[in-house]
Each structure stands twice: as C-alpha cells, then as structure tokens.
Design brief:
The protein is an all-alpha fold and 59 residues long. The chain contains three helices and no strands. This is N-acetyltransferase domain-containing protein.
C-alpha cells in the first residue's frame, strides 16, 4: 500500500532509514558519518518539519 506518511509513521521511517543507511553505506563512509546523517535527516524534529510543510514521504 502506498499512502502519505503521518506523524505516527516517524518511528517506521527512522527504522527504515537506519536499516537502509547501515546496509548500503557501511564501508563507503564511516559509522560516525552514517550516524550523523541519520540524526540530521531523520530526527523527530526534521521529520515533523517535513510533514508539516506538506512534503510527501511515501513509505
């Protein structure tokens, strides 16, 4: 099913991002850099801002 992400989906989005980044970028960039990017791009605050500004995230 494809639908617009909601605030309740933030933990799922964060989990998917963590799995994806750790699967695909390890060995290319450091774990420290992966953790930094996840924190910057997928924090509760950032995802709430994205949802609030009507950016659509498809999960």
């Amino acid at each position: 099913m494809i639908r617009k992400a909601q605030r309740e989906d933030i933990p799922l989005i964060q989990s998917l991002a963590k799995q994806s980044w750790n699967s695909h970028y390890i060995g290319i960039i450091s774990q420290e850099q992966i953790d930094y990017m996840l924190g910057m791009m997928y924090s509760d605050e950032e995802l709430n801002n994205i949802l609030r500004t009507l950016t659509i995230i498809i999960i």
